[in-house]
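The aim of this short unit is practical: by the end, you should be able to scan a pair of folded records and say something sensible about each. We start with the first protein, listed as its amino acid sequence and then its structure tokens.
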Amino acid sequence: KLLLITCLTASLTIQAQPTNGLVGFFPFSGNANDQSGNSYNGTVNGASLTTDRKGTSNNAYQFNGTSNYILYGSSFDYPERTVSIWFYCTQTSSSAISTVYSSDNKDLVNGMTAIYLKKINNVNKLIFNASDIIDTTDITLNAWHHAMLTVTSDSATMYLDGSSIGTKSISTQYHSMDVSTKATSGTTRALSNGFFEGKIDNLRVYNRVLNATELNELYVLGLKEIRRPGSVRVFPNPASDMLTIQPGGIPAAESHTIEISNSLSQVVYSTALTEQSLQINLSALGSKGLYFATLKDQSGHIIDIQKIILQ
């Protein structure tokens, strides 16, 4: 029985990254080349290769916050687009932004796209900018984070660490006046300000809006690459009624929580972790389909996530 449970758990793998509409993929594995097949290779100015989210050498880029940047081979300025990027910021400023990603082609009509950080009222903020809309959310420094931004002609949706922080309507396709029409990381398209201090890894750009399931898969794929000790076990999987969750030996006294969300990233079940083997009646979840079990620590940071199939 134990072998069967182990096999069921091991067989539940996360699919590879979505490839439909992928126009730029920069894993930063030894260089800033585009692995999407479109050859939009990046030009590195001063940034140096460093360890990535898994601790692997030469698999991410380090930026010094004063002069380093990467200039990509395209503006990635499409009528619809999805941007996915991992970053580790070590310093913000109240007087200037720190650019994780920025794109625009002032000669096109699709508006600008940007993800950056700034200290506002002494709080570190992640800021999303799409055409004339801006949204912010609190962010912790010295930790890896995943940001996604989906943009259409009339709205934009922002995501941080797998969760949506909101959707806003676009009323004007605002364009910047920066000189460069190419996308950048580490600085604005002016190539002279908005410098980022920290690490950036795994940029993906799509010429379409990924659906909710694809966005979940993209985040889970990256999260599993940086899994820490104490991984969650879920069984049986697939399941039809009762599900057992074992949080990998993490002390219940640490006030961890288990959340179950559906494929739309909506939390449908949440409970405090008070024991090492938790049983959940899946009939309370409602419809059959794909779900995700997420283990969070007392600060709300995600430790692990597992896919669940309710049949």
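Turning to the second protein, read its sequence before its tokens, just as you did above.
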Amino acid sequence: VRLGYGLSGNQNIPNYRYMTLFSPRPSLGSTILENDGMFGNPNLKWEVQKQFNTGLDISLLNSKLNLVFDYFLINNDDLLMERTKAGSSGYLRELANVGAMENKGIEISVNANLVETRDFSWGGGLTFSSARNKITRLYDGVETVWKLGGYSNNEIQREGNLFVGESINNIYVYKFDRIVQESDMDYVNSLDLGNRIVKPGDILPEDRDHNGIINDKDRYVVGNTDPDFYGGIHTTLAYKGLSLNVVTTYSVGADRISYLYETLMDNSGLLSTHEDMKNRWTPENTNTNIPRAYNLGDWGLLGGRYGVGETDWAVQDASFFRISTMTLAYNFPTTLINKAKIGSLRVYVTGNNLFTFTKYKGFDPEGGDWYPTSKMYVVGLNLSF
């Protein structure tokens, strides 16, 4: 039985961030002092982590079956995070202690030697983890800290906002209402959409507060990127000199926005696009949830139609099951290789990232969309004399 409690501090604060820094730049015979956009905060403190954990290790059947259970509860106070500042202040951001967060979860691992004879053995194990985090307090008693940016400092981002009671990894967007049909236009025209233009075939967000106005107050937390649970399964089978080792990983319940998929869906169809666009809305194909193709005249940076990523239409299930590593190896019998003055000889072939089973439409449900995860094969030989 294990039991622990402790405090630790996060001193990972960039140097001199309690001060507003300026850099000199020569210009026309004089020197101009420029700031780097970060406002100094003389009230900075270390982030403090209070961690409680308890665990149980069990070994059964002469160590053929081993189990490990862990529970942890972590409270972080004085969270260090960059805060967005209003552009009118002359600065872009500020490093500050913004609040407190709770993180708790369980971890379970099981390892077993299932079969063990002279010529054949089979063993394996699995891991299971589940963790939850939530913001428990924000500075000055506020309920929300917005992450602003994008094309203007007043644009609320989809990710990175902080809400009391919600995960730090939340996704904040509109709720998808419908793909607009011709018969919906009377309702659409009755709404105050600001500078948005919505036509048949476009996405319409839901007016969640039913006030006839669709604005930021209709956005809400639709999910988060934290999986419900995740882990891995591994097994090894061996018969005489031949062995097979398989390692798999899994993750269930995480949400993710695929920026790649959005880019492929938010275009006119004249550029590279996703095959889902084959089923896009047209006047002849109205029974679909894929919005119409359009050109840049229908959509702009400061107006136009709603993009697919502005609603939970774009939030995808990032659950997956992956065969991460598979190794097939053969150890030559010593009675055979000793005649050649060889101590040991092993040949093997290993495959990494072989198969991923997922509904996610981006490059990789785990690694994201910046670059596809590579598949790799290795053929090797281990030789000793």
